[in-house]
């Protein structure tokens, strides 16, 4: 793999901002682009706001950020491309066509798409579809280590290995999917939880605040340390997961049959929105996100000093 010294960030919304801040903090040069009015000013202000909370390496600086008017100009001299455009296939195809023409043939074109399939995205890059893949971060990218690397039907092994190596060098925790599936892994798991959470509120079983408390002060604490399978294994004592599945498998299956199926009607949507407002009151979302990220940083620091998987 050619050493990555300059990254193109295409699309500088919330996810693009997080990627930009992380790349800069790791001492890389970043060439960014976004067609939205005022995008450059917003990006630079966002990086400046995040910078004090980033673990920057020696030589890292926000001054290593440049902003250009087009995706082609961003990709022209890049060693890696991270695309963060809108979740619309037609928009992605236009972007990837431009990136495919401008970037050197060996440069990976990674999309932050949270649900689109890389095989579909690669149709926008007919010259070199073998270097197109999904590199989906978990928000906020400058804090959360997870990156889901998803190859498409025509993605080369070299592109996959280059992407895994690049994200690992950033300090991320990349995982490779063995098959394409809408929503990848983490978002599908979240969707399953949200389905039942919304159903519990709709059925009047619990308030929005109660559901949040049940996760944040219950299983969410364990999930932040180990995943669902490992935690379930530990809950089985000496018998481990086999014991859990033998004794708690049947009641769990009964829970599955009783899980709610919901439709986001206008009424349910308003109930959920009102519930969040009741829970958080006048709390400033930006301030709450900063406090959350500070706790996450402490947690990640603590985990880094252990040999947890």
Structural description of this entry:
The chain has helices spanning 14-25, 39-50, 71-75, 89-102, 118-122, 157-169, 186-202, 208-216, 219-223, 228-234, 240-258, 266-280, 285-304; strands at residues 6-10, 29-33, 65-67, 80-83, 109-111, 132-137, 146-151, 173-176. By secondary structure, the chain is of the alpha/beta class. It has two domains: 6-176, NAD(P)-binding Rossmann-like Domain (Rossmann fold, 3-Layer(aba) Sandwich); 186-304, Orthogonal Bundle (N-(1-d-carboxylethyl)-l-norvaline Dehydrogenase, domain 2), CATH 1.10.1040.10. The protein has an eight-stranded mixed beta sheet with strand order 3-2-1-4-5-6-7-8, with helices on both faces. Helix 1 packs across helix 2 and helix 10 packs across helix 11. The two termini are 27 Å apart. One of its GO terms (biological process) is fatty acid metabolic process. It holds the Pfam family 3HCDH_N. Residues 7-178 form the 3-hydroxyacyl-CoA dehydrogenase NAD binding domain.
């Amino acid at each position: 793999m050619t050493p990555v010294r300059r990254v193109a960030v295409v699309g500088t919304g919330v996810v693009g901002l997080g990627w930009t801040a992380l790349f800069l903090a790791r001492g890389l040069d970043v060439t960014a682009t976004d067609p939205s009015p005022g995008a450059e000013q917003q990006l630079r202000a966002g990086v400046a706001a995040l910078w004090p909370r980033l673990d920057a390496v020696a030589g890292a600086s926000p001054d290593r950020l440049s902003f250009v008017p087009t995706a082609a100009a961003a990709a022209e001299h890049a060693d890696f491309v991270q695309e963060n455009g809108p979740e619309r296939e037609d928009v992605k195809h236009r972007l990837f066509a431009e990136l495919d023409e401008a970037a050197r043939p060996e440069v990976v074109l990674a999309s932050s798409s949270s649900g689109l399939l890389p095989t579909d995205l690669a149709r926008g890059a007919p010259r070199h579809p073998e270097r197109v893949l999904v590199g989906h971060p978990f928000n906020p990218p400058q804090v959360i280590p997870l990156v889901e690397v998803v190859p498409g039907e025509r993605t080369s092994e070299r592109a996959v290995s280059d992407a895994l190596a690049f994200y690992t060098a950033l300090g991320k925790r990349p995982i490779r999917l063995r098959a394409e599936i809408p929503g990848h892994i983490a978002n599908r798991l979240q969707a399953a939880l949200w389905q039942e959470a919304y159903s519990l509120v709709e059925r009047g079983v619990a308030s929005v605040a109660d559901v949040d408390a049940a996760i944040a002060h219950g299983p969410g604490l364990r999930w932040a340390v180990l995943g669902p399978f490992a935690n379930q294994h530990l809950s089985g004592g000496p018998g481990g997961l086999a014991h859990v599945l033998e004794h708690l498998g049947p009641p769990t299956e009964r829970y599955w049959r009783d899980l709610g199926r919901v439709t986001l009607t206008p009424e349910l949507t308003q109930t959920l929105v009102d519930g969040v407002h009741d829970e958080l009151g006048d709390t400033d979302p930006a301030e709450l996100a900063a406090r959350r990220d500070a706790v996450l940083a402490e947690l990640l620091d603590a985990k880094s000093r252990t040999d947890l998987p």
